[in-house]
From TrEMBL, chain A:
GO molecular function: ATP binding
ABC transporter domain mapped to chain residues: 2-216
Segments passing through the bilayer: none
Native source organism of the sequence: Plantactinospora mayteni
Keyword Cell inner membrane assigned: no
Record family assignment: Belongs to the ABC transporter superfamily.
Protein name: ABC transporter ATP-binding protein
Xref: PROSITE patterns: ABC_TRANSPORTER_1, ABC_TRANSPORTER_2
Nucleotide-binding keyword on record: yes
SUPFAM superfamilies xrefs: P-loop containing nucleoside triphosphate hydrolases
From TrEMBL, chain B:
Family matches, as InterPro entries: ABC_transp_permease, BCAA_transport_permease
Chief location of this protein within or outside the cell: membrane
Name of the protein: Branched-chain amino acid ABC transporter permease
Family membership: Belongs to the binding-protein-dependent transport system permease family. LivHM subfamily.
Signal peptide region: none
Length: 218, 286
């Protein structure tokens, strides 16, 4: 689904990613964790074509959609119009199925997205990404600034999409526990390099991850 | 009363022209956040082109339409220079458009000389409330109504309009969903060029156009567009009409030499009012 080989990305002279390798298989849920500034968003931006690689290759089979960090709705547009723009690339403007998947959006459809709460905006961002009928979804910081109940609801939706529609997910999370609970595999990115990779259980058990990301004294 | 009506009609005519120039500014600004100071030049270029084409025997309608297309082409060219390089800050692009507006003088004088141009509009006169006025005013008013209805519908009802607005309202999100921001920006400059061009071919039959007439148009158009916060087409129409009518009354009952002052005072008043209540958040979307 996603195959990243020796990916290097630069901002001017600063190197944000050093020879990163990462894969996401069909229908798989993969976590990407790491501290602020590690290069996680840079990686997703490169996957969705916003950032150009300086070296290495990115290959994606099927459609990838991107839920950007900080939600990034179109504030002046209504929820429904936000969703419509999610289908821009594939010229799909039928928002009906999204309201079936995310019924919480239905009462909001005529509201301006900029006026919604953070959780509602995140729901819009997920719905907008789903409009592209993706086979793989890259979610940059699902839980950022959201209350636990709201996060649980979003997580439930991701699980359902994965189980019912076979949607593959690359989940970037500050909350490593949540990410490792939800995903079967994961990567740890630090200062632009993958410093650990493995199954969620392996990562959770590794002292390095437990210490730095799970708040367990190692 | 007859005088009043006469001034009113004249004012509405020039107000429509300001509004058209202003709508070009609005379209470009909505999509790119660039204030395009070359907007008046598109009108002058189209006016000059139409006069040349008509003089060379092209029929009315075709000549004006071709001139509007030339305006659109000029808009696209200005857009290419001003925003063609991804990541150019709007402030830098603004300066580029200002430079191009001055550069346009050289090109215009080279091609058409520095003498004023005019050509005939819709022939005949119409009587209304005991006042006779050129039938051409009806064309100006009708064309403006159609253009503004179209522009408002473009932004409010079409997906391309939503995508155009999305480019400036959240450029990062626009790229995330696959909107090509530079291409949308160029499209907006092209539309702006056509709107400016239309203003130019409509105004020439009621107003001599010289190469530097763009200054009058850009000041009036800017005042109209500022009335709508450089964002809203329908407010721009209202702003343009208010300005046109105000100028016409000042010229009619007072002194015709004060037209520019009227525009500048109105512009200043609107900007001061907006600065007083402008939410800072609207200036710089994160
Ligand atoms: N547009 C940019 N221009 C220059 N440097 C950038 C740019 N975007 C990111 N960087 C730098 O690249 C590095 C990686 O940034 P990135 O946003 O990918 O990190 P991140 O892992 O997503 O961090 P966070 O958890 O805070 O979101 C950082 O050092 C950052 O300062
Ligand atoms: Mg990030």
């Amino acid at each position: 689904m996603i195959d990243v080989v020796d990916l290097t990305v630069r901002y001017g002279v600063a190197v944000a990613l050093h020879a990163v390798n990462l894969t996401v298989a069909e229908g798989e849920m993969v976590a990407l964790i790491g501290p602020n500034g590690a290069g996680k968003s840079t990686l997703v931006n490169t996957l969705s074509g916003i950032q150009r690689p300086a070296g290495g290759t990115v290959s994606i089979s099927g459609r990838l959609a991107h839920v950007p960090e900080g939600r990034q709705v179109f504030p002046d547009l209504t929820v429904d119009d936000n969703l419509r723009l999610g289908g821009w690339r594939i010229r799909n403007r039928d928002t009906g199925p999204i309201y079936e998947i995310l019924p919480g959006l239905t009462p909001l459809r005529r509201r301006r997205a900029g006026r919604l709460s953070g959780g509602e905006q995140q729901m819009v961002a997920v719905g907008r990404a789903l409009m592209a009928r993706p086979e793989v979804l890259a979610v940059d910081e699902l839980s950022l600034g959201l209350a636990p109940l709201v996060v649980a609801d979003l997580v439930r939706h991701l699980r359902e999409l994965n189980a019912d529609h076979g949607l593959a997910v690359l989940l970037i999370e500050q909350n490593a526990r949540l990410a490792l609970d939800l995903c079967s595999r994961g990567y740890v990115l630090e200062a632009g390099r993958v410093v650990a990779a493995g199954t969620a259980a392996e990562l959770a058990a590794s002292p390095r991850v437990a210490d730095a990301y799970l708040g367990v004294a190692g | 009363m007859r005088e009043f009506l006469q001034y009113l009609i004249t004012g509405v005519g020039s107000g429509c022209v300001f509004a058209l120039v202003g709508s070009g500014l609005v379209v470009v600004h909505r999509v790119t956040r660039v204030v395009n100071f070359a907007q008046g030049s598109f009108a002058v270029i189209a006016a000059m082109t139409a006069s040349t084409l008509l003089a060379s025997g092209l029929p009315h309608g075709l000549a004006e339409a071709s001139a509007v297309a030339v305006g659109a082409g000029a808009g696209l060219l200005v857009g290419l220079v001003a925003i063609g390089r991804p990541g150019t800050p709007p402030g830098a692009s603004l300066i580029i458009t200002l430079g191009l507006a001055v550069f346009a003088y050289a090109v215009e004088v080279l091609i058409w000389g520095d003498q004023p141009r005019s050509f005939a509009g819709v022939p005949g006169a119409v009587e209304f409330g005991g006042v006779r006025f050129q039938a051409h005013y009806l064309l100006i008013i009708g064309a403006t109504a159609v253009v503004f209805a179209g522009t408002a519908a473009l932004f409010a009802r079409t997906d391309i309009g939503r995508a155009l607005s999305a480019c400036a309202s959240n450029p990062y999100a626009a790229r995330v969903v696959g909107i090509d921001i530079v291409r949308m920006g160029l499209l907006s400059f092209g539309i702006g060029g056509a709107l400016g061009g239309l203003a130019g071919v409509l105004v020439t039959p009621i107003q001599l156009v010289t190469f530097d007439y763009d200054v009058t148009l850009i000041v009036g158009g800017f005042a109209a567009a500022v009335f709508g916060g450089l964002m809203r087409p329908l407010h721009t129409l209202v702003g343009g009409l208010l300005l046109g009518v105000a100028q016409s009354f000042v010229a009619g009952y007072g002194n015709a030499a004060y037209q520019m002052e009227v525009a500048l005072v109105l512009l200043l008043a609107v900007m001061m009012r907006q600065a007083a209540r402008a939410p800072a958040a609207e200036q710089e979307p994160a």
